[in-house]
Design goal:
Helices cover about 80% and strands about 10% of the residues. By secondary structure, the protein is mainly alpha-helical. Keywords: Cell membrane, Membrane, Transmembrane, Transmembrane helix.
């Protein structure tokens, strides 16, 4: 299984390198469209290779997806935490009740011994 994973990672690396080599051309990324940039005064432009833009888009999409899932699963994590706390409280209460029952049994045995002695 480990070799299959290594083979997959090697082939993925080869594909990514070939995509990067095929898309080395420079592209300009602008923060806003030209008309809006002139209107607001925020004309920020950067020149990057196309493969950096592609890989950056993939990474940004993954991060947004991970964050979205983390936020979506919040209610499940909160419920699991609440249930774990409830289980802990019930276990503590059960131990306390067992101790009370043990002490009550010991007192009953002492009274029975006293009754037998008299």
């Amino acid at each position: 299984m480990r070799y299959i994973r290594y083979a997959f990672l090697a082939s993925l690396g080869a594909v990514l390198v070939s995509v990067a080599l095929a898309n080395r051309g420079m592209v300009s990324l602008s923060l806003l469209p030209e008309a809006l940039a002139e209107l607001t005064g925020l004309s920020y432009t950067v020149e990057l290779p196309l493969f950096v833009v592609i890989f950056g888009g993939i990474v940004a999409g993954l991060l947004i997806g991970f964050f979205w899932e983390w936020m979506r699963e919040y209610k499940h994590r909160a419920e699991a935490s609440r249930k774990a706390r409830e289980v802990h409280d019930l276990e503590r209460q059960l131990k306390r009740e067992k101790r009370r029952a043990d002490t009550a049994e010991q007192k009953d045995e002492v009274l029975a011994l006293l009754d037998e002695a008299s």
